[in-house]
Queue: 2 jobs
Job 1
Amino acid sequence: MAELTYRNAVAYGIAQEMRRDPSLVMLGEDIAGAGGVFKTTVGLVEQFGPDRIRDTPISEQAILGAAMGAAMTGVPVIAEIMFSDFIAVCFDLLANEIAKSRYMTGGQVTIPIVVRTANGGGSRFGAQHSQSVENWVMMIPGLKVVAPSTPLDVIGLLAASIRDPDPVVFLEHKSLMADKQDIPEGEILDELGVARVVREGTDCTIAALALMVPRALEAADRLEDQGISAEVIDVRTLVPLDTQTILGSVSKTSRLFTVEENPRLCGWGAEIASIVADEVFWDLDGPVVRITTPHIPLPAAEALEDMAIPSVDRITETVTKRMG
Amino acid sequence: MSTQTKDEGLYDYALREPRLPAPENRENDRIGIPTEARLEMYEMQQLLRQFEKRAYDLFLQNLVKGTSHLSLGQEAVATGFGLAMKPDDFTFATYRGHAHTLARGADPGPVLAELLGRENGILKGKGGSMHLTSVEHGMMGSYAIIGAHLTIANGAAWSARMRGTDQVAVCFFGDGTTNIGAFHEALNLAAIWDLPVVFVCENNLWMEYTPIDLITAVANPAADRAASYGLESIVVDGNDADAVYQIAGQVIQRARRGEGPSLVEAQTYREQGHSRADPAKYRPPAEVQAWKERDPIPMYHERLLRLGVPEGDLSTIQQDVARRVDEATEFAKGGAMPGEEHLLTDVWADGGSAWRN
C-alpha cells in the first residue's frame, strides 16, 4: 500500500502498462526530459528510454497523426495533448481520422490509441487553458471518453484504456492533480463503461464527473444535515456510458441532478437527462435538473472562475431549492 | 475576348498564360529498366486509365454515386512508385486514390463495387471513392481532408522502425496540400526523427479550381519547400513512368537504409476536372492541349515501340486490361446493395457500435 497523488498515479499507470507491453510507446510535448508540464510523466523516460517516451515539437497534428499511423500498423500508442483546449488544433485527426477510419474501411484497421490530456478549470488559466471539453469528444462516433476522479481510478481506467483496442480520450483533471489516495499492491486494472455509486442515498441522485465528484460528495454531506439523502454517482466514462447504474439509481430516488463542468449546451448531462426522461419518466417525482458552468468562455479571474464552475455551495443550494 | 482586360486574368484563369509541360526527355529511353518491368508499368497505366474511364462512364449512367476524383493523366506517378515498392510497404493517398489502390495490387472488382456503393465493395460500401483502403495490399487508406495523412504516414514509418522491419511509407498528395499546416508539421517531424517515409507531391498545377502558382509563395510548391526541412529538392517528370520509377527506387531505398525521409515533386496534369462535378473550363485551352500531347500513356507506348516491343504485344495487354475492367464492372454491378445489418457494425473493434449499456 502506497499513497499516490492523482498526478503520480498517471505515471504509475503508464509504467505498469509499459512493463506489461514492451511495444507500448508514448509521445507528446515536454513529456520526456521535463516529465510533463503537469509532472504526470516524471521518471518514465529514465525507466523506458527516449525511444518509448518521445518528446515532440509543438505540432499537435503531427502527434496524433504519428500515433494513428503507428497504432494502425501494430504499435499501441499513448499520445499526450498538453491541454485539452489544444484538441481544437488537431481535431481533424481526432474527429475525422482516428475516430472514423475503422468504420470507413469496413473494419480493416484497428487503432489502439489513448489520447491523454489535461482538462478542466480551477487553475485561473483563462478560456484557452481551462476548458472542460468532454462534450467536444463525446459527440464523435468512434471515440471512447474517460474522466477519472481519483488516483486509483486514474491507474485502473488508464490501464483499461490502454488495453482497449479502440481510441480513447483520457481526460486528466488539472485541479485534482494533488489529491491523494492509498493504492494497493499489485496490478490495477479497471473497466470502461462502469459508473460507480460513491455515496448511497434515497432522496435524489447526483451524477457527476471528475472534479465535480468530490464537490458533489461534499454537497451530499451538507444535504444530509438538511435531511436530504443524496446518492452520488461518479459517471467515470462517458463513452461507453453506464446508463443502467444511473437509471437504477434514479428509479430508486426518483430525482436526478447532473453536475457538469462543461459549458451548458450539449453537456453530457443533457444526454443523460434525455435517456432518463425517455426510459424512467414514470419513476421521476420531479424535473431532471442540470447544474453546469454557464454557456460562456471560462474567465481567468479567480473570483469569476469560481462563480462559473459549479461549486459545493451552488450544488447544495440548487438541490435544496429544487427538492423543496 | 476583345473586351477582356488584363485584370480579368486574375480571376478568369482561362485567360492566363498557359503553363506548359517540359518536353519529353527521350534520354529516359535509356534508363536501365528491364523490358519485363516496363511492360508491367504499361499494363498498370492501361489498367488505371481504363478503370478511371469506366468509373466515369458508370457515373454518367448514374451508377457511381457521390463524388469521385479521377487520376486521368496522372497514372505514371502511381505506376512508377507502385512498382518500386515492396509488398509490405505502406501507401497513404488522398481522395484521389483509385490509382494508388490499384497500383498496390487491389482487385479492380471490389474497388469499382465500392464506387457503386455495393456490399461487395472493398470497404463494404462504408467508405466510398474517397476512402479506398486495402490493408492486405499495404494500402493504408485514402484520406479526404488534405494534410492529415502525411502525419499518419509518419506514424506508419515510425512503427516500422520500432518493429524492426525495413518497411517504407509512401504518402501521395496534391500541390494544394503543400499549403496546409499538417504538411509542414509532418515534414518537420519526419526530418527530426529520420523516418523511413517518402512524401510524393503530385503537382497537377491546379489546386481544385485555382492555379497553384497564384496561391503559393514558391514556384515548385513541394520541391522549393524541401530545404526548410533539410531535404533535397527533387522534381521529376510525373508523366514519365520510367523517370518516376527511377527516382522512386532511389528515395525508397534511401529510406529503407535508414537514411531518412524524402520529398518528391512529380509534375503532372489532370486531364479532367477536380471532381466529377467539375467540367474544368477555367483552364487555358492551350495548357490543356499541350499537356494532352504529353499524355503519359501514348508516350510510354511509343517508347516501348522504340525499344523494340512489338505493337501486337501492347495490343494484347490493352485487350487483357479491357477484359479485366469489363469483369470488374460485372462484379460491381452484380453486387447487392448493403443491407441494414451492416449499418451499425465496425465502429468498435468488437464489431459493433454500442455506446451505452
Note: Chain B touches chain A through 51 residues (CB under 8 Å).
Job 2
Amino acid sequence: MSAYELDDERAIRTGRLVEDWTRSGLLTPAQRDIITPQLVVDLRRTNNYLRITLFVFGGVILQSVLGLLAIFIGGWRDETTAALLCIAAGGVCFWLAGHLVSRYSLYRFGVEEVAALSAVGLTAVGAALLVGGDGHWLVTIGLVTAAGMFAALFFHFGFVYAGVLGLAAVAALPFQWGSSEAIDRLVAVIILAVVAVMARAGRAEHGDDYPGDALTIIEAAAWLGIYLLVNLVVTSAITPLDRSSNAFWITYAGIWILPAMGLWLSLRGGERPLLWVAIAMTLATLLSNKEYLGSPRDEWDPIVFGVFLMGVAIALRRWLAAGDGGMRHGYTASRLVASDKSKLGALAMVSAAQVDVPVAQSTPAADPGIGGGGRSGGAGAGGSF
Amino acid sequence: MTTLERLAEWKAVGTISQHQHDTLAALVRRERVSVYVELSALLYIGVLSFVGGLGWTMRAYVANLGDAAILSLLSLIVAAAFYYAFAKVGPYAKTEVESPTLALDYILYLGCLVLSAELGFIEYRFHIFGSWHHHLLLVSIVFGGLAYRFDNRFVLSLALSSLAGWLGIRVSGLDVVAADPLRATALAYSAFVAGLGTWLYRQGVKAHFHDVYLHLATLIVLAALASGIGEPALGLIYFAMLLSLCAAAIYLGIRSRKFAFVTYGILYAYGAVSYKVAAYLDEATGIFLYGVITGTCVLVALVALARRFGRDE
C-alpha cells in the first residue's frame, strides 16, 4: 500500500517532463502555463539542496533524541532490553515518517526520509540483538530485517534508493552462511537475477510511467549487482582471485556476456538506467581483462583505453548522424532535451576538483624518472611527475 | 493518468499541436532516444584516461625517451587538438553557443590538459620560471581565453583551478588550506574569482558561466576559513568571518534562488558553531541536548524556507 496516490506520483513525473520540454523548446512557456495547473498535487515538495539539508538536520535531531533516550532510560544492561528498545524506536521512526507524509503531505522532503531510514537501522539492529547468536547469525538476522524494511520503504514511500539498498542487503545474505565462496556468489547472483526478472515483469504493464520507472532502476541495480558478483577482479576484496578453479573461467565468460546482454536489452527497449549500467559493466570488463588473464599492466594501457573510448564515441556519433534524420533505430547522438545538457554542466562543475593529472614537480628528483609531490593541483600542472 | 494519456488530452483540447504531440509522445514511448550524455561521458572518461596514461608513461620512460621525444609528442597532440578545435568552431558570441560537434569540447579539453602537462614538464626539466609555478598563471590565462572562445565549462574549470594552483591553493581533492598566509591567499582568490565572474555576468559575457565562478569561490573561501577556526591566534577572527560569509551565502542564495549556496552556508555555519560549542560540552547528555535544540531550530527555519520557496531551482 503506497503512501502516495498513483495519480500524484505520475503527475509529479509528468510535471518534470513538462518543465524539461519547455526548457528544450518543445513546449512554449504559454503552453506550460496552461498545462502546469493540471499537474498540481497536494504534496509538499522542495528542491534537492534543501532536501539534503533537511535530511541532515532531521538526522541530527533524531540521533540526538535517541541518544538522550538511551541515557535517560539507562540501566539496560541486557541485550534483550536494548533490542526491544531499538525495535520500538524503529517502529516510532517508521510511524513518524508515515505521519509526516499523511499529516503534512511531505514528498521527498528529506525529513520523512531520514526518519524512514533510521527505522531501518534501528529495527535491523534490534532484531539482530534480540535473536542473538554468533556473529554470522547476528548479521544474517540484521540483513534480513534490513532488506524487509528497505522493501517496505520502497513499496510504501517509493524511495528507489531504499529498494537498491534492500537489494544490497539481500545479496550480502549468502555470504553469511559459511558455504564455499563460489556457492555464496552463485546464490547471491540467483537472488539478484530473480529480482531483475520480477522487476522487468512488474514494469511491463506500466512502461515508463510510475512505478515502471522505479522498477527500471531496481532492475538495473540488480544487473549491476550480478556483474559485481561475477567479476572476481572488481570484487577481489571479498575473496582473493583463484585462477585454478573452474568457476574462475566461467566468471571470465560472464564478465563479457553480461555487458553484451545488458547492452542488447537496454538498446532494444531504450532503457536508460540499464544502458548506463551496461556501459559501466563494459568499461569494468575492459579494465579488468588483463588482470583476469594474468597479463602485466603497462603504463600505456590508459592511453589505449582512452583512445578506444574516444574512438568508439566518435564512430558511434558519426554512424548515428549519418542515418536518416540523424537517427538510426530510434537513436540519435543529438541532444533532445535540456536536462541532458544540465547533466554535463554538473560534470564540468565538479571537473575542477577531479582533474589531477600527473605532471612535473618544481624540483627535479635525483632520478629524472622518479617524481614527487607538486605544489598545486591546478589543472594538474603542478602535481607530481 | 499516464503521460501519454495526458498528451492525448492536451492535443484533444488544443493545448498542443499534432506535431508537438507526435514529437513528445515519441520521446515518452522511447521511439526517439538520445545517447548524447552517454557518448559525452565516454569522451570525457576517454580524455581523462588518455591524459592520465600519458603522464604515467612519461614518468616511467622519461629517462629512455629523452626530453625532445617527449616534448615533440606532447606538442604534436596539442597542435592536433587545437587545430581540430579551431577548424571546427563557429563564430564567437557573448551568449551561450552550442558546440558544432559532440567531440569538439572534449578534444579541446584534451589539448588543454596535454598543454598543461607539457608546460609542467618544461618547467620541471628547464626551470624557466625559477622557484614558483608561473606556468600555471600562463595556462590559466590561455585556458580562460579558450574557455570563452569555445564556450567550454570544462576548460573554464581548468583555468580557475590553474589560477588557484599558481597561488598555491590546491583545488583538487578535498585538501584544506592550512596556514594563515595561504588562507589570506584563498580569500583573495575567492574574492577575485567571484568578482570577475560577476563582472563578466553583468557584462553579458557568457553569463551561463557565472555559477562555475561562484561555486568555486564559495567553496574555497568557506573551506579556508573553516580550517582556521581552531587556530589559537586568529581563530575567532576566522570564525566571525566564516559566519558572516555563511550569512551572506544564505541571504544571497535565497534572493537569487540558488539554493546550493543556502546549503553551503547552513552546513558550514552549523559546523563551525558546533565546533566551538563542543569545547564546552563534555558530557553526552549536553551534546545530545545541543543536537536536539539547535537541530530543531535549523529544521524549523528550513521548513519555513522550503514551504515558502517550494520547488524553486
Note: Residues 355-385 of chain A have pLDDT under 50 and may be disordered.
